[in-house]
UniProtKB/TrEMBL annotation:
Entry's family note: Belongs to the CPA3 antiporters (TC 2.A.63) subunit G family.
Keyword annotations: Membrane, Transmembrane, Transmembrane helix
Protein name, UniProt field: Na+/H+ antiporter subunit G
Keyword Secreted found: no
Species in which this protein is naturally found: Mycolicibacterium murale
Pfam family, one: PhaG_MnhG_YufB
InterPro entries: PhaG_MnhG_YufB
GO molecular function: sodium:proton antiporter activity
Key word RNA-binding present: no
Membrane-crossing segments per the record: 6-27, 64-82
Amino acid sequence: MNAFDVLSGVLVLGGSALALTAAIGVVRFPDTLSRMHSASKPQTLGLLLVLLGAALRLRGHPDVGMIILTGLFTLITAPVVAQRVGQLAYREQRDRDDLLAADEMRDDR
């Protein structure tokens, strides 16, 4: 067992722990905006850590290219999806106004 295997294991376990906290947050948080935050940020970082750990373990294997593409696709799509879900939740009034510090989307007409 070398240093790359140990680092790979630490990254996979750390990423799995972040993904677990994201799943717990989705279940426990009260409103859509809080759940969206929990589902996007730690889950994305957790997946990237798991993919990095897998890439370290598989170094030199042809599948590392697919792992890199998966990570890039996640980085591109996760923020866009979270932003769109947040806009939809706001427009459908499924959020709690008392949790907003500033309402930048409100129409002042």
